Amino acid sequence: MSTVASLIQQHPTLFQEVIWPWGPIRAKFVLLDAGRAPPPHLIANVTVVPRVGNRDQWVMIQLADGAWEMPGGTRELDEDYVTTARRELLEEAGARLHTLRVFGAWHCYSLAEKPYRPHLPFPEFYRVVCLGDVELVKSPSNPSDGEHVAAVEGVPLETAIVRFVSSGRHDLAELYHLAACL
After folding, report:
1. DSSP characters for 142-159?
2. Could you tell me which residues are beta bridge partners of residue 87?
3. Which sign does the torsion angle of CA 141, 130, 158, 30 carry?
4. Are 122 and 110 in contact (CB under 8 A)?
5. What percent of the chain has pLDDT over 70?
6. What is the mean pLDDT of residues 132-148?
């Protein structure tokens, strides 16, 4: 069995097509070759699996409603995906980005009538997923137009997986595991 096939078999929830209710959006996770991002004009969002430099600590954010999440968000006008990743990490995790490597993306197709924001690609777009080595430097800034982050923690991979699974986010548990495998 090939390495890609093996990774897909180990992470079945992550690789299945889903319909996200916001939008609504049809999305399917795909692996990308050697840090190669999709075409820039098709990138609408960035998600980062953040790792504190020593590789034993994986950063998770806890929202005000108690849900565990990972940093990420929508690309602003005139931002490239690296700038979006840097901004989202500072806003949501208080983290400074040191290195960033694209390893996958949700290939998305919006079922909505119009784009979420006029500058974003529509109806086809990508939510890029990166592994980022970070340093936690401050509290989240919690901008008024974003989600309210109540806590930021660096935890062992096993703790991150347990937290995501216990909150019904098997996709994120598998995403963190996949990032660790790569």
Report:
1. --TTSPPEEEEEEE-HHH
2. none
3. positive
4. yes
5. 98
6. 92
What mean pLDDT do residues 99-124 have?
96
Distance CA 101, CA 21 (A): 28
Domain count for the chain: 1
Q: How far is CA 116 from CA 20, 45, 74, in A?
A: 14, 11, 9
Q: Which residues pair with 129 in a beta bridge?
A: 47, 104
CATH code: domain of residue 117: 3.90.79.10
Q: Where in the chain does DSSP place strands (E)?
A: 18-20, 25-31, 43-52, 57-63, 68-69, 72-74, 95-110, 124-136, 149-155
Lookup: tokens for 32: 């990308």
The whole-number average pLDDT for the span 55-72 is 94
User: Is residue 105 helix, strand or coil?
Assistant: strand
Residue 59 sits in which domain range?
A: 3-181
Is the pTM here over 0.85, yes or no? yes
β-strand partners of 27: 18, 108
d(CA 33, CA 169): 25
Q: Indicate the range of 53-67, 69-83, 90-104, 166-180 predicted with least confidence.
A: 53-67
Nearest CA among 130, 126, 104, 106 for reference residue 7: 104
